[in-house]
Amino acid sequence: VEQHMGWIYAAMGCSLLFLLSYVSYHFTTPETIFGDTNGDRILQDSEKEAVGLRRPVYLVVLLSHIGLAALSLPFILMTFVYGCTNQFTKHRKLARRIFPVWLYVAVSGPVVYVLLRPYY
Questions:
Q1: Is 42 domain-assigned?
Q2: Residue 73 to residue 60: CA distance in whole angstroms
Q3: Could you tell me if residue 70 is inside a domain?
Q4: CA quadruple 71, 113, 119, 24: dihedral positive or negative?
Q5: In the predicted model, what is the mean pLDDT of the chain?
Q6: pLDDT per residue over 42-95, tens digit each?
Q7: Domain that residue 51 falls in
Q8: pLDDT of residue 116
Q9: Which one-letter DSSP state was computed for residue 42?
Q10: Inter-axis angle of helices 54-84 and 2-28, to 10 degrees?
Q11: Based on the structure, what is the number of domains in the chain?
């Protein structure tokens, strides 16, 4: 249990740092548009055509990532609080349910980044 707590505190700290840097970045940097090959921040028909079905796939992954990240945050915090307050039955029950959602968000985030990277 002690080792688990140490890893969880480290993970929560890293998550907080990531969230702060992510929000700061998006408040200070113009958005990057998937498929905008010339970088003018306007997605022209020819650019849309060039990326084809990759754009809808990207949007599905992006929107599901954003939605599930927002949805999971309060449950992750509740799971953390349950663990910190020794409510282990509630902690385990909620952790089992939220873990697959968290895992999807954790994997889909870098996937979104890799898909969008050519347009930075």
A1: yes
A2: 20
A3: yes
A4: positive
A5: 97
A6: 999 999 999 999 999 999 999 999 999 999 999 999 999 999 999 999 999 999
A7: 31-119
A8: 97
A9: -
A10: 140
A11: 1
